[in-house]
């Protein structure tokens, strides 16, 4: 790390870097791809603890790849068209069709590049399916945690002679030339010092605005009072910088919520519990919906229950199946689970109404055994009946990250109000407008990391093509 602008390989002969990446999360994929193409890159991040403090590091490291070689090896038929259909269904047709198609199309090449060129030890998740995905297409790393993913990207970036990292440094603005093209990145440092780094392009990979409570209250009132469980520097920097320079913003009402944040430990219980057969009850012990619709929209449903808290009820089988998740192991190690030999004992220990909790557990078991009467909330999948001993973990709703931002095209170029690209300005992840449609119920697992990694990768591809074209012109 450097306390000032590096004087090494990160700068071209005229003193300008080819690309400044603001945000050392998913933006590192763009830095690595640009470096692979021979471009000189400067990565800046305002958070000294970015390896464990940004949303990429806090994720479950699930990356969709529709039609990947891991799927082919497993005999899974999938492809961009099927993935796009799932996005369209989950978002009720409200997601940007062009961006959705582009990200679905690059998803398999992206995960294969991450494995082959960025060194990520990826495997395909086949032990359970996330809501909304009609095929097993999520790829992850050991431990299923973003900190492992980010550490790999960081170590690869550190070893590149074409990448310099500058932390802590915050992108405050960009400078543009007479033709509107990017000419520099304005950086600020702790203590207030400011300097401008000459640059040919800037990638806004600063995530969304989840840490800005005023913006959250304005755009996401239904989740504004919920716990925020995301990076502290996700303050809408990319959004403000882009809008200052005439960029269009869209889908600002979109977000990823989560209904499975453990109240005691503030760790993620994870929705694998639900997909393996667990149920969620409110503080009184009553189920209140079909939990398998999705963890994002269920955050708002939980927030609307008395006391805005509830319990996930599981058993030893589900407990053991979820241990591959680092987040779940942390929840267990923190002592957040309460165990009992029967529903009455569990009700006593949780404070739930015994009759209500008995009904919830008995109803789950009956539905899992194929009861003639359908589940009153429409849930069709329970895997297996819950069996004693039972466990419960108290959960609260949370906002994880926003899903709206600057409008971008399929090349990750930031667009103005009239849909014209701003030359040299790119956005990815939460700084871009994403593919989750409106509200919370359009979110599919991986909708955060795919735009974060994929759009950063696309920005580098776009920039490298432009650079190569320019080099060819200079030599003709």
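Q: What amino acid sequence fits the structure above?
A:
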């Amino acid at each position: 790390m450097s306390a000032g602008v590096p004087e090494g390989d990160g700068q071209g002969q005229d003193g300008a870097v080819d690309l400044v990446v603001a945000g050392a999360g998913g933006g590192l994929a763009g830095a690595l791809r640009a470096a692979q193409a021979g471009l000189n890159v400067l990565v800046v991040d305002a958070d000294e603890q970015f390896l464990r403090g940004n949303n990429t590091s806090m994720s479950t490291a699930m990356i969709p790849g529709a039609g990947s070689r891991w799927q082919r090896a497993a005999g899974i038929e999938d492809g961009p068209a099927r993935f796009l259909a799932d996005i369209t269904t989950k978002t009720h047709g409200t997601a940007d069709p062009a961006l959705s198609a582009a990200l679905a199309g690059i998803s398999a090449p992206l995960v294969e590049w991450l494995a082959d060129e960025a060194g990520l030890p990826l495997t395909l998740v086949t032990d359970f399916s996330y809501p909304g995905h009609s095929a097993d297409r999520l790829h992850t790393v050991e431990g299923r945690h973003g900190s492992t993913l980010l550490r790999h990207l960081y170590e690869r970036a550190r070893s590149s002679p074409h990448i310099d990292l500058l932390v802590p440094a915050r992108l405050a603005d960009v400078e543009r030339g007479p033709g509107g093209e990017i000419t520099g990145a304005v950086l600020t440092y702790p203590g207030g010092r400011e300097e401008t780094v000459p640059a040919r392009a800037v990638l806004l990979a600063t995530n969304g605005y989840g840490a800005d409570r005023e913006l959250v209250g304005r755009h996401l009132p239904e989740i504004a009072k919920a716990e925020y469980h995301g990076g502290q520097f996700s303050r809408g920097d990319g959004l403000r910088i882009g809008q200052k320079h005439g960029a269009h913003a869209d889908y600002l009402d979109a977000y990823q919520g989560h209904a499975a944040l453990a109240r005691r430990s503030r760790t993620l219980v994870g929705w694998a519990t639900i997909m393996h057969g667990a149920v969620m009850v409110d503080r009184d012990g009553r189920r209140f919906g079909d939990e398998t619709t999705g963890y994002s929209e269920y955050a708002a449903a939980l927030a609307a229950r008395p006391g805005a808290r509830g319990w996930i009820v599981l058993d030893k089988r589900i407990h053991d199946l979820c241990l591959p998740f680092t987040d779940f192991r942390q929840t267990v190690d923190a002592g957040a689970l309460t165990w009992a030999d029967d529903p009455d004992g569990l009700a006593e220990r949780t404070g739930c109404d015994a009759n209500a909790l008995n009904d919830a557990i008995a109803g789950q078991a009956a539905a899992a055994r194929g009861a003639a009467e359908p589940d009153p909330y429409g849930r069709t999948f329970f895997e297996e009946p819950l069996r004693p001993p039972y466990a419960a973990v108290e959960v609260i709703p949370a906002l994880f990250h926003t899903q709206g931002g600057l409008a971008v095209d399929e090349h990750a170029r930031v667009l103005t109000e009239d849909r014209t690209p701003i030359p040299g300005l790119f956005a990815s992840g939460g700084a871009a407008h994403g593919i989750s449609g409106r509200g919370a119920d359009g979110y599919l697992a991986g909708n955060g990391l795919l735009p974060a990694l994929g759009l950063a990768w696309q920005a580098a591809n776009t920039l490298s093509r432009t650079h190569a074209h320019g080099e060819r012109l200079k030599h003709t």
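Q: And what stands out in the fold?
A: The two ends are 39 Å apart (CA to CA).
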